[in-house]
Amino acid sequence: MNLLLQSSNILHPAIIKISGSKSETNRLLLLQSLYPEIKVENASNSDDSEVMLNALAIIHHPSSITQTIDVHHAGTAMRFLTAFFAIQEGKEVVLTGSARMKERPIKILVDALNKLGAQITYEENEGFPPLKIKGKKLTKNKVTLPANVSSQYISALLLIAPKLENGIELTLEGEITSVSYIKMTLALLNEIGVKTSFENKTIKVTHHPSPITHHPIKVESDWSSASYLYSVIALSEIGSQITLSNFKKNSLQGDSVLVEIYKKFGIETIFNSNEITLRKVKNLKPVILNLKLNNSPDIAQTIAVTCFGLGMGCHLTGLHTLKIKETDRLEALKTEITKLGATISVTNNSLTLEQSENINPNVCISTYQDHRMAMAFAPLALKVPIIIENAKVVSKSYPAFWEDIKQIGFCIEKI
Q1: 8-state DSSP, 384
Q2: Is 321 in contact with 295 (CB distance < 8 Å)?
Q3: CA angle at residue 283 from 238 to 352, to 5 degrees?
Q4: Cα 266 from chain centroid (whole Å)
Q5: CB-CB neighbours of 250 under 10 Å
Q6: What pLDDT does residue 324 have?
Q7: What is the pLDDT of residue 326?
Q8: What is the DSSP letter of 20?
Q9: Rounded distance between C-alpha atoms, residue 167 and residue 212, angstroms
C-alpha cells in the first residue's frame, strides 16, 4: 500500500495516546514468561511485541519435536528469544526470520551463551540466523562481551540471569553503546525484586527464585514513536501543539532525550501528570546541528529529516548500530533524502547533512521494510506532497501511526 500525503496543516489542540514502549514491553514479556506472577499494563500493540508474545507462548505447549519460530523482521525478538530458549531445559527450537534477519549478525550473543554452557548451532551461515537451540541448564556465570555492539545482546543475557542458579557476571569491553537500554533492563529487573549492580564495566545480576510478588507494571508509552510527532511540531507554525500520553519525566527510555534535542528546533515539552504537551514556541535560524546519538540512534532518521525540512544542516555521530537494523539505515536515508534534493554523506558511524532551501515535491520514498523510514519522512508533508511506499510497514512498532496523523490534520490518500 502506497500513500500520498498532501501538503497539510495540523489541527490543534490535538490529543494522541501512544501505545506502550516496544522496548519495555518485550523485556517484560520475557520476564513474565520466567515469572508468571508479573502483570503488565499498557503493553505495546506493535507487530514486534505480537511476535514476541506468540513465540513465548510455545513454552506452554510441550512437544517432543523441534519447533520452528519465525520472528520475521523483529530483531529484538531474535536476540531475546535466543537467550530465553537457551535455558528452557528439554525444549528444542529453530529460530528463523526474514531474508534480512538472516543477514543480521548474532554471533556475539551465541558465543556468549555457548560459553555459559548453552547448545546453539547455526542452521545455514555461521554467525547468522536461523539458529537451532537445545535448552539446557546453565551453571556457568562469567562471560565477557564487546560493549560497542547492539545493547540487545547484553540485555538478552541480563534478562535470563535471574533464572540462572549462579546469576551472571558480565564484563563489557570497549565503549558501551546504548547504555540507556542496558539501564532500562536493569531497572525492570530491580522493579520485580532482582538484585543487580553496574560498576565500571561489570554488570552483576543475582539468582532470583520464583514466585515474586509485585504490583502490576504499567509500560510507559514509546518515546521513539513520539519522535515523529516532535518532528511534526518542529515543521509546523509557531503555536502548534500536540498532547501525548502516557509519558514520564524520569523515563527509562533513551529516546526521551528528545525533550532536550527538540529544544534546538524551538519546541518546549510540558509535563503534566502522565501527559506531555509539545508546543512550538519559536522559529530558529538555520544552523548546523551537532549531536552524538550513541544512546539513542533510532531517532537519527527523524532528526535528519526534521533538519532538512527546516533548511538546517546536521552532523550526527554514534550511529554504527544503524548498519545492522531492518535495513542499512544510513545508506537508505542517504538514498531517499537525496531524492528530495538534499546533499548528504554517510560513514559507518555518522551522517552529515548540508543546509538546503528546496524540497522536491511528489517524491516516492522507499521504506526498505523499515518502519522508521516510513514514519521519519511523513512529517515532510507539512512542506510538500510526498508519497510513502509500502506504508503498512509502520505496524512493526506503531500500528496507529497513519490514523493518528490523520487525526491531527494530515491529508492521506491511497494510491
Answers
A1: S
A2: no
A3: 130
A4: 25
A5: 7
A6: 63
A7: 60
A8: B
A9: 16
Phi and psi based region of residue 278 (left: phi greater than 0; alpha: psi -120 to 50; beta: remaining): beta
**pLDDT computed for residue 323 by the predictor:** 67
Q: What are φ and ψ of residue 364, in 5° steps?
A: -95, 120
Cα separation, 409 vs 71, in Å, equals: 35
Distances (CA, A) of 69 to 24, 55, 62, 273, 347: 22, 6, 14, 41, 35
Residues labelled as active-site residues: 298
d(CA 301, CA 183): 24
Residue of 202, 195, 136 whose CA lies nearest to 169: 202
Contact between 404 and 375 under an 8 Å Cβ cutoff? The reply is no
The C-alpha torsion from 203 through 207 and 208 to 210, rounded to 10°, is: 140
The segments of the chain whose pLDDT lies below 50 read none
- Model-level pTM? 0.88
Q: Give residue 148's pLDDT.
A: 83
Alpha-carbon gap, residue 192 to 149, rounded angstroms: 27
Q: Specify the pLDDT at position 28.
A: 97
Cell numbers for 399: 500500528
Residue 146 contacts residue 116 (beta carbons within 8 Å): no
**Strands of the 350-353 sheet, one edge to the other:** 288-292, 313-317, 350-353, 344-346
Going by their DSSP bridges, the two strands 313-317 and 288-292 should be labelled as parallel
pLDDT tens for residues 272-330? Answer: 988 999 999 999 877 899 999 988 988 999 999 999 999 999 999 999 877 666 668 89
314: left (phi over 0), alpha (psi -120 to 50) or beta: beta
Count of alpha carbons within 13 angstroms of residue 161, beta-carbon side: 29
Q: Which of 189, 256, 271 is nearest to 226 (CA)?
A: 256
Placement of cell 496523523 in the chain = 405
Torsion sign across C-alpha atoms 171, 174, 176, 177: negative
Give the separation between CA 353 and CA 305, rounded to whole angstroms: 9
Instruction: Locate the DSSP E strands across 160-201.
Output: 168-173, 196-199
Q: What is the pLDDT of residues 46-77, one digit of tens each?
A: 999 999 999 999 887 766 688 999 999 899 99
- The pLDDT value given to residue 211: 83
N-to-C CA span, the chain: 7
* Furthest C-alpha separation in the chain: 65
d(CA 231, CA 298): 14
